[in-house]
Amino acid sequence: MRVTVTGTGYVGLVTGVCLAEVGHSVICYDVDQPKIEKLKAGISPIYEPGLEELIRKNLDQNRLSFTSRVEQAYQDQEIIIVAVGTPEKEDGSANLCYLERAAEQIGKSINRDTVVVIKSTVPIGTNEKIIKQIRGIVPPEINVEIVSNPEFLREGAGIEDTFNGERIVIGSNHDEAAKLVEELYQPFSIPVVRTDLRSAEMIKYASNTFLATKISFINEMANLCEKMGSNIEDVALGMGLDSRIGHQFLRAGIGFGGSCFPKDTKALENIANQNDFEFKILQSVIEVNSEQKQKLFVRAKELMGSVTGKKAAVLGLAFKPNTDDVREAPSIDLINSLLNEQAEVVAYDPVASEKMKSIFEERIEYASSPELAIEDAELAFIVTEWPQIKRMPLELFKDRMKTPIILDGRNCYSLEEARSARVSYISIGREKIIHFQKVKR
What we know:
Layout: E1 2-6, H1 10-21, E2 25-29, H2 33-40, H3 51-60, E3 64-67, H4 70-74, E4 79-82, H5 97-109, E5 114-118, H6 126-135, E6 144-148, H7 158-163, E7 168-171, H8 175-185, E8 192-195, H9 197-228, H10 232-240, H11 261-274, H12 280-292, H13 295-304, E9 311-315, H14 330-340, E10 344-348, H15 353-360, E11 365-366, H16 370-373, E12 379-382, H17 387-390, H18 394-400, E13 405-408, H19 415-421, E14 424-426
Parallel strand pairs: 1-2, 1-4, 2-3, 4-5, 5-6, 7-8, 9-10, 9-12, 10-11, 12-13, 13-14
Helix pairs in contact: 1-3, 5-6, 9-11, 9-12, 11-12
């Protein structure tokens, strides 16, 4: 099929490249001219394992192209997939200005019957508004239908999820349009869920909110385990063996971040408020996650009395491994708290340092390796469980740090390792290992 994907952010770029890989003729459109020029040269603007190789392969085979020209993007295409951002407004609602702008361009540019597929995460009822907007612009002889097709890609595993996903949701009030989109995805051989427009929109929010709820739940259990002398890892293992619960998203830590969970939970809360519904569980999920992001800093203060003037190593900046995405990352909250207390911050991340520089600039130091980051540090915070960090022996912290105090927000090490290394080791939901006298206030 002839397909255009609007928006070359994470979702749009991964989707477009993978559709080209299975044989479709794909144009990826974006208004960002410098980004398009990089993509034409086979250079990916985002870090995603395997993506750049697929871009180059499909460029060479002429199945994939990139443009910033509206006419080239939208004319003579069977399907237009819209994957523009819907960022969070100050009140938590989704900002639809990019989607509305895309709809206007589509309405002014298409010259044949077209199915518009909304892959962006949008409030319930948005697809109906967008198709009304487009139909108000196109000539009457052109037929336009709309399909809601939410994405479920994990950053760092987007290609794998595209080819081996658990379901494809196709929401439409028009049977032929839904069939065409189902045919588009047929080469992936993934089960299809057909719904109406509003149900498809709600599935996306419901899915992300439920996963966020599991994370906040296990983090609250971890906080209780610390008070009761239980081990959260044993608790999570015992829970997860129940097939009704499962192990996924039951890893205690310092909260969720990224482009989806924080934005979508707040957006759904806003949707609930707009419809006079008090979503009590969701309110708690958001509150717990906000507090959890401060967990390591609070523990450091309890341990040290003050972090003023202390050298603190922050290991990991991305919100999770295998991505350079720092949006809503727990590292941001931690670094802000440390800087507010006049601590000296040295950070390490294998791919996300450049993104973090746009936030903190030169207010923190960036190390080229985790070993250099912890050199002469008095505190080490493990924020992202990159393999480069997890494989560091605890003895290295003891040898390199001024005081070997490790605050592990991802439970990368066993308690036995910490005891054996004789370091001070504070993790999430587990026993504290302390090997020095607490500093008095």
